[in-house]
Amino acid sequence: MQTEEGQPMLSSGKQVILDRETTSYLDVEEYLVGVVARQIPADYEMETLKAQAVIARTYIYQQMAGKNQIAESALDMDYFGQVQLERLWGTSHYLEFYQRVEDAVTQTRGMALRYQDSYIDALFCRCSTGKTRAGDEARPYLVSVECPEDVRADGFLQLKEWTPDEFSRLISAIPDGGPVSADQVPGMIQIGERDGAGYVKVVQIGNVQFQGDEVRYALGIQSPCFSFEDYGGNIRAEVKGIGHGYGFSQYAGNEKAKEGWGYDELLQYFYPGTDLVKEEGEVKEGES
Known about the structure:
Elements: E1 15-18, E2 24-27, H1 28-39, H2 46-64, E3 69-71, H3 82-89, H4 91-107, E4 111-115, E5 118-119, E6 124-125, E7 157-162, H5 164-172, E8 189-194, E9 200-205, E10 208-211, H6 212-219, E11 226-231, E12 234-240, E13 248-249, H7 250-258, H8 263-270, E14 275-278
Parallel strand pairs: 1-3, 6-13
Antiparallel strand pairs: 1-2, 4-5, 4-14, 7-12, 8-9, 9-10, 11-12
Helix pairs in contact: 1-2, 1-4, 2-4, 2-7, 2-8, 3-4
């Protein structure tokens, strides 16, 4: 069913305008299936998938800022269609995994997280260092919680190595950071500050300071929880965790789901003080 303008009538009341290649419209709930499938392993526990569906929906609702439509190009999200999902999962698993993710979205239909009547920044990562990071004053619901399960996650520990020339070239490319020469590393690298979960906040190389996240992205390492050492004249990094470390840890959440935690309990653990609310409606003709 469509409106007079030719736009689909959506029972959820919210649409994503697919505008990156051609222009078409998807119900947010349908769009979420292709997003959640990209964000989390489809063979995780159903309660973990449901928690991730709420997290993704909360982000979209927040970006909509009270409107019923948003362009896909305005969302910092990757949406996978059938061809991409078959490539991700393999043709033999496609139907099974798609059904699991669709069920997670359907069973949490319209559910999102709020804090004091505003949609939250529902940040998430694949796994923490064993403890998630605390947010700033604007995000009091992002607290540091214990995730001892995360140290058992595949890929939790990463080791990478660079020559002094490679390292200095990558670091010098950080915007507004200042140049770093090969003769300054590894001897002049210092970790200036870490947060309570062990993530690097400040790195100093010589007289130049960099933010931990800047260094992470410049070096292509999986987490801002890292340390450096001289390794036969090269620089070796030991990196713990996967992702920025804020909010929902997917691996720890999945381990808790195996113990019987429901998706609402998971969300309350990782985002304490938030409210899980349901928003439903219908798009009226001509409404946008």
